[in-house]
Design a protein that fits this description.
The structure holds two protein chains of two kinds.
Chain A: H1 6-34, H2 41-58, H3 63-91, H4 96-115, E1 135-137, E2 140-142, H5 144-166, H6 168-178, H7 180-185, H8 190-215, H9 223-236, H10 241-262, H11 267-281
Helix pairs in contact in A: 1-5, 1-6, 1-8, 1-9, 1-10, 2-3, 2-4, 2-8, 2-9, 3-4, 3-8, 5-6, 5-8, 6-8, 9-10, 10-11
Chain B: H1 2-32, E1 33-40, H2 47-65, E2 74-81, H3 86-99, E3 104-106, H4 111-116, H5 118-124, E4 128-129, H6 137-140, E5 146-147, H7 153-167, E6 172-178, H8 181-196, E7 201-208, H9 216-224, E8 229-233, H10 238-248, E9 254-258, H11 264-270, E10 278-280, H12 285-288, H13 292-305, H14 311-330, H15 335-344, E11 347-348, E12 353-354, E13 367-373, E14 378-386, H16 389-392
Parallel strand pairs in B: 1-2, 1-3, 3-4, 4-5, 6-7, 6-8, 8-9, 9-10
Antiparallel strand pairs in B: 10-13, 11-12, 13-14
Chain lengths: 295, 394
């Protein structure tokens, strides 16, 4: 490993880390409110990337303007899946494994729909051809993409934190996260609150997907980044929203440093090995206090 | 009661006659056609290469049938999807061999799938003429039932190194590729080419998973090694995303790749960033037109599609052409006889005239060098035959 190169690789890793963080927040929010490990979450990234194609290429919108409609469109899909595909299982008292399998199935269905030629097709799609030249800070190359990704993740994470603390809907989400039965007795409409959680996770996944499409490529294979974000959620402390942000950034940096300075071939094995180490040494993740049980 | 039994008896007789009739019709249909199975990537992120190949294979079947078929029978292509997954390739091969009773297989596209179906082929004595499959391992297994319709990735990259060194004065190469068999074969070609091309060196090399999206760190390290050219040994979307990020980082380095991996979607994906990218390819219409058989095929293709065929379409067509020529030479649809015929075949193909060695590798294949132009919409031939050092030495 070249130590002198380390700050550069850390800065490169922050951009991808910000994207991991957005998706990891979605995982954590759904887990906190529904007690569900949702495997449809990575495909919201995939949906956001192809919706981004419609926004940026077909409709020729600027990136900042496309973010809201792309996020909202993905959120609508997330709510639809929750209400049509998961709510009936919840109402029948379906087992946790049934819910998890349902999210796996929905993920596959979404990929197959997007894959069709009348939708977006199987090929990778490009959302832009040019990029603003990077600038240098203390001798380190900083890309505007990295700045934009960090700013987007920062604004959305801060906005979500404010929403959860300062609004009645946010407090309802937290209450349902503590105990849905108690929340229901307090007059909170639990199903509506769960739909809100699905919408927020879909929105965050969609915006993350837009960034993935903009920075890298859009299409059916972009869900792999969403799968890796699950590791970020675990590292941060599953179910812990601030932890998801920390986990995302740590994963992004670690991922990039390992690929560049240790072994590109062993990258995934080492990164997922980190999850095992974190779970063994600090079972609640880097930030979380408890894990795999709703707080 | 007796009347009812009589009625049921009549129904049974009618059903029996219908079944026998249908069976006879099926048998007649089977006897009238020669079935060839095609296994390629019809779904998934790499589907473009498979869809193009399948289109070429089907057109070749129609083209040959319009000229009387083979042994007085029509050819029938039964197409199966392996989604670039070796397990699905085995399922597809099992269905084609056991249920459809194909006499030969064209494909799969990926060497890993090609290796996976070899035991099934051996059990049923069904030869396969692979599509793009460029990894050395495909024929290194020693299966007598496998034949290539393309040169290996090793040779492609070997030839590309030599071409870029001579024509573009490239001395320092970097290689960024896929971490599976095909990527290893490509890297081996680059290493061989550099070792045997005077004044060249490989200053950076790395192998990454196909799912890699963020190449920032890799590009930064490759750039630090100061190469004159970066060679990409991977399919889409890896190849496209990497080339795009190289250009977006402001690095104007020469980029090389091979059409064995990337196809029309590479150019579409990159748009203007594709301009000037140099590749070797598995075929080119302009080169095919220089051959009599190739010109006739390209003319027929243009009549139907109103455009020139792409390299993968030519690959699909030639794979079917090899099987058809072997059936004709064998005078039989027996798998073992077709296999023996390919070994003795002087194939007068669309892209090239070909013969095979004992391992099923092509003895000589011209490799076109091509360049992307017109914002990724055109792939122009630079030359129709560059030969790798590894071959020239033999």
């Amino acid at each position: 490993m070249r130590v002198g190169d380390l700050p550069q690789q850390i800065v490169f890793g922050l951009g991808l880390g910000a994207i991991y963080a957005l998706v990891a927040i979605g995982y954590s929010l759904v887990y906190r409110t529904m007690g569900l490990l949702s495997f449809v979450q990575p495909q919201f990234v995939m949906l956001g990337s192809v919706f981004g194609y419609t926004g940026l290429v077909t409709l020729d919108l600027p990136l900042w303007l496309a973010a809201v409609p792309v996020g909202v469109a993905t959120a609508l899909v997330a709510v639809l899946i929750d209400q049509v595909g998961l709510r009936p299982i919840r109402r029948r008292g379906g087992a946790e494994i049934a819910m998890i399998l349902a999210t796996v199935a929905w993920g596959i269905v979404l990929v197959e729909i997007v894959r069709q030629s009348w939708a977006y097709g199987p090929s990778a799609l490009n959302l832009r051809s040019t990029a603003r030249p990077p600038f240098h800070l203390l001798g380190i190359e900083v890309r505007w993409d990295t700045v934009g990704s960090l700013a987007t993740a920062g604004v959305l994470a801060a906005g979500l934190a404010l929403f959860l603390r300062r609004t009645s809907s946010g407090r309802a989400l937290r209450a349902v996260g503590e105990s849905s039965r108690t929340a229901s007795l307090m007059g909170i409409h639990v199903e509506r609150t769960l739909a809100l959680a699905a919408a927020i996770s879909g929105f965050l996944g969609g915006v993350a997907g837009l960034l993935v499409g903009y920075l890298f490529s859009a299409g059916i294979s972009t869900g792999t980044i969403g799968v890796k974000a699950l590791a970020a959620a675990v590292i941060g402390g599953f179910g812990n929203v601030p932890g998801a942000v920390v986990g995302g950034l740590v994963l992004g940096i670690f991922d990039n440093v390992v690929a560049a300075d240790v072994s590109a071939t062993w990258r995934d094995a080492i990164v997922y090995g980190l999850i095992i180490v974190v779970l063994i040494v600090r079972v609640g993740g880097l930030v979380g206090r408890r894990v795999f049980s709703r707080v | 009661m007796r009347k009812r039994l009589s009625y049921l008896g009549s129904v049974a007789v009618v059903v029996a006659i219908a079944l026998v009739g249908a069976s006879a019709s099926q048998a007649r249909s089977a006897a009238d056609t020669i079935k060839i199975g095609s296994i390629t990537i019809l779904t998934g992120p790499s589907a473009t290469i498979g869809l193009e190949t399948a289109r070429g294979a089907q057109f070749m079947v129609d083209y040959l049938n319009a000229r009387g078929g083979v042994l007085g029978k029509k050819l029938e292509l039964i197409s199966a999807d392996d989604a670039n997954n070796p397990q699905l390739a085995v399922q597809a091969a099992a269905q084609l061999i056991q249920q459809d009773h194909v006499v030969a297989i064209t494909g799969p596209t990926n060497s890993v799938g090609g290796i996976a179906i070899q035991s099934l082929q051996a059990q049923a004595s069904v030869p396969a003429v692979a599509y793009q499959s460029g990894a050395e391992q495909l024929t290194a297994t020693g299966s007598p039932w496998v034949f290539r319709s393309n040169t290996t990735l090793n040779h492609h990259f070997d030839a590309l190194v030599e071409y870029l060194a001579k024509k573009k004065k490239v001395k320092r190469f970097a290689y960024i590729g896929w971490n599976l068999a095909a990527g290893q074969s490509s890297l081996a070609g680059v290493q061989y080419g550099v070792a045997h091309t005077k004044g060249t060196s490989l200053v950076y090399q790395t192998a990454l998973p196909l799912t890699t999206q963020d190449f920032s760190g890799t590009i930064s390290q490759a750039r630090a090694a100061n190469p004159d050219a970066v060679l990409i040994g991977a399919p889409m979307p890896f190849a496209g995303v990497l080339a795009k990020q190289i250009r977006q980082s402001g690095w104007k380095v020469t980029i090389g790749a091979t059409g064995d991996f990337v196809t029309t979607d590479f150019g579409q994906f990159l748009g203007a960033a594709a301009n000037g990218l140099i590749m070797t390819d598995t075929g080119h219409a302009a080169c095919a037109e220089k051959r009599k058989t190739g010109k006739a095929f390209v003319t027929a293709w243009q009549k139907k599609f109103h455009r020139l065929p792409g390299s993968n379409e030519l690959v699909g067509a030639d794979a079917v052409g090899v099987v058809a020529a072997a059936i004709k030479k064998a005078g039989s649809t027996d798998g073992a006889k077709i296999q023996a015929a390919i070994r003795k075949l002087n194939y007068n193909g669309i892209r090239f005239a070909a013969r095979w060695d004992a391992k099923g590798n092509l003895k000589h294949t011209p490799i076109p060098a091509v360049v992307w132009a017109a914002n990724g919409t055109k792939l122009n031939a630079l030359t129709c035959d560059i030969q790798p050092v590894v071959r020239a030495k033999k």
